[in-house]
Every structure is written in C-alpha cells, then in structure tokens.
C-alpha cells in the first residue's frame, strides 16, 4: 500500500528515542521529511543523523522541552523556516511520575499538566493555522492504554491523558471540514528504555530481578510479551497517512490485547 507520505513534512515531538523515534523512523521510511525535538541535544542530533543516513530524507533536530510553550513555538517556527509547512504532527512527551493521589503535590500535578496536556495544546495551536490553510493535516497524539483502562499507581497518566483524549475528540469535529484528522494512539507495554528502567526500578524496590518484573507485566498481556516500538510505529504511520483520510476522533490501542473492554 502506498501511504502517500512521500514528501510530507512531519513534526514528531519527544523523538530522540523510544516510541517517538520509532514513529519518526517509520515516517522517514515512507519518504517524509522530519522535524524532531527532545530535551537533550546530543542524543537528538545523533538520532537525526542516523535517520537521515538510513532513509535519505532531511531531518531537522531542535532541542526543546515540550512542557515549555516558548520551546514549542520555537520548534514549529524552525520547522516552518526550513520546510515551509507542517503536514503531520505527532505529539509525545516523557512519562509523568508514578504515584497514588496522596503522593502527588500540587506542584507535581502542575508540572505533569504542562508535560502531558499543555504540550499537546500548544503544539496543536502552532501547526493548525497552516494545516487549515492548506486543507490537509494529520494530528496524532501518543497517549496510553490508561485512557481506556486506568493503570494502578499512575494517577497522573490516567487523569491527564484522558484530558488529551477529550480535547482531541472535540478538535476532530472542529477541524474535519478542513481535511485534518485528529487521532490518539495508545501504547501498551512496549520495550523502550523507559519500560526497561521501570522494570529495573520495580526490581530494586521489591528485591526481585528485572526479568521477573517484566514477566509480571507479560502475564497480563494476552500476547505474553512486550510490544516492540516498530509494531507501534506501523499503526502510527498509517494513521498519519493519506490512506487514513476517513479515520478521525479515534483512540486506537497497540497493546497485545491488554485492554479487556469491548470498544
Ligand atoms: P522513552 O523514555 O523511551 O522516550 C521518551 C522520549 O521523550 C525521549 O526521546 C526523551 O528525550 C523525550 N522527552 C522526555 N521528556 C521530554 C520533554 N519534556 N520535552 C521533549 N522531549 C522529551 O519513553 P517511551 O517509552 O518512548 O514513552 C513515550 C510516551 O509514551 C511517554 O509519555 C510514556 O509515558 C508513554 N507510554 C509508554 C509506554 C511504553 O510501554 N513504552 C506505555 C504507555 C505510555
């Protein structure tokens, strides 16, 4: 299938590693030019160079913290200065701290709100006028399985990603007449650096091995294994593509069957 992504300009946030990077790789493999951001410049530039070399597409890396609206504006300005437009926006950020309600101070809530919700609002605000003017756009938010089935001890993720989902569903209706789709993609347990370090932290806390901590997650997953970033990125690329032109307002999991609900 030709996804129709060749020559499109895609901005992927928080993409120096993990899920964001995997999505960037898949879009590059389809011929899209990229703008990537992450906080640490060295790792970001190394990722950009590797993708450029592997796929022969231009990749611009701008060091930025997506929780800071001024940084977000700077990234989008740099994208427009280099490529003239942004066709595809993939929002993403680092995960918020774990914890139950009692463990989370007002400051932690506020920081997580900036990281998970404000980042999506500001990235969207910055790219939407151009997408509307050209009558074509794709916005894809990386959220989590926690929006369909809350995960114990992840109060911040469960709450704030639900807010992103509400915003996206509302925006999808508002911008559909402009040829812009807005969707969410929900990773389940996927083998990224973050998940490996979560397993190591759980192991250290409980005096078990990291393999045992991972095995406990795998036992909850019908596929009995973690997902691979590439498996996640395949759906992401499709949802960003020309071929997904009639899919909007949805939240689609890539979770090996972890979510047990019917819809
Ligand atoms: P990761 O730690 O492997 O990668 C995160 C990327 O985001 C890195 O490139 C990092 O530099 C960048 N980043 C972090 N904070 C940033 C910020 N404030 N501004 C700009 N860039 C920033 O994580 P991942 O596993 O790829 O997860 C990505 C998102 O998906 C997270 O929000 C995570 O909570 C969520 N998620 C992941 C899983 C999973 O199993 N991997 C499951 C559900 C949800």
CATH topology of the largest domain: Rossmann fold
Q: Quick check: average pLDDT?
A: 97
Q: Mind telling me the CATH superfamily name of the largest domain?
A: NAD(P)-binding Rossmann-like Domain
Tell me the series of helices and strands, N- to C-terminal.
EHEHEHEHEHEHHHE
Which ligands accompany this protein? Answer: nicotinamide-adenine-dinucleotide
Organism: Hymenobacter frigidus
Protein name: Short-chain dehydrogenase
Family: Belongs to the short-chain dehydrogenases/reductases (SDR) family.
InterPro entries: NAD(P)-bd_dom_sf, SDR, SDR_fam
Set down the secondary structure blueprint.
Layout: E1 9-12, H1 18-29, E2 33-38, H2 41-55, E3 59-63, H3 69-83, E4 88-91, H4 106-134, E5 137-142, H5 155-175, E6 180-187, H6 193-206, H7 210-220, H8 229-239, E7 251-254
Helix pairs in contact: 1-2, 1-8, 3-4, 4-5, 6-7
The chain binds nicotinamide-adenine-dinucleotide.
Structure description:
Belongs to the short-chain dehydrogenases/reductases (SDR) family. InterPro entries: NAD(P)-bd_dom_sf (IPR036291), SDR (IPR050259), SDR_fam (IPR002347). This is Short-chain dehydrogenase. There is one protein chain. The two termini are 27 Å apart. By secondary structure, the chain is α/β, with parallel strands linked by helices. It has helices spanning 18-29, 41-55, 69-83, 106-134, 155-175, 193-206, 210-220, 229-239; strands at residues 9-12, 33-38, 59-63, 88-91, 137-142, 180-187, 251-254. It has two domains: 9-188 and 228-254, Rossmann fold; 192-226, no CATH class. Helices cover 49% and strands 14% of the residues. The structure holds nicotinamide-adenine-dinucleotide.
């Amino acid at each position: 299938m030709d996804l129709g992504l060749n020559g499109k300009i895609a901005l992927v946030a928080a993409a120096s590693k993990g899920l964001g990077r995997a999505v960037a790789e898949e879009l590059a493999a389809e011929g899209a030019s990229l703008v990537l951001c992450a906080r640490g410049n060295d790792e970001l530039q190394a990722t950009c160079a590797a993708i450029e070399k592997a796929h022969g597409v231009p990749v611009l890396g701008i060091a930025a913290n997506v929780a800071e609206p001024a940084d977000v504006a700077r990234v989008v300005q740099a994208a427009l200065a280099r490529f003239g437009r942004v066709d595809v926006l993939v929002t993403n950020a680092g995960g918020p701290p774990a914890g139950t309600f009692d463990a989370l101070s007002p400051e932690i809530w506020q920081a997580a709100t900036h990281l998970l919700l404000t980042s999506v609002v500001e990235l969207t605000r910055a790219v939407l006028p151009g997408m509307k003017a050209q009558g074509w756009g794709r916005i894809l938010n990386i959220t989590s399985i926690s929006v369909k089935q809350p995960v114990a001890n992840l109060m911040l993720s469960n709450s704030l990603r639900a807010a992103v989902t509400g915003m996206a569903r509302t925006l999808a209706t508002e911008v559909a007449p402009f040829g812009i789709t807005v969707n969410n993609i929900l990773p389940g347990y996927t083998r990224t650096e973050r998940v490996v370090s979560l397993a190591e932290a759980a192991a250290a806390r409980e005096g078990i091995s990291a393999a045992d901590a991972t095995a406990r997650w795998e036992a909850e997953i019908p596929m009995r294994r973690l997902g691979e970033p590439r498996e996640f990125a395949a759906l992401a690329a499709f949802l960003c593509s020309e071929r997904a032109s009639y899919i909007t307002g949805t939240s689609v999991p890539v979770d090996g069957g972890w979510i047990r609900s019917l819809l």
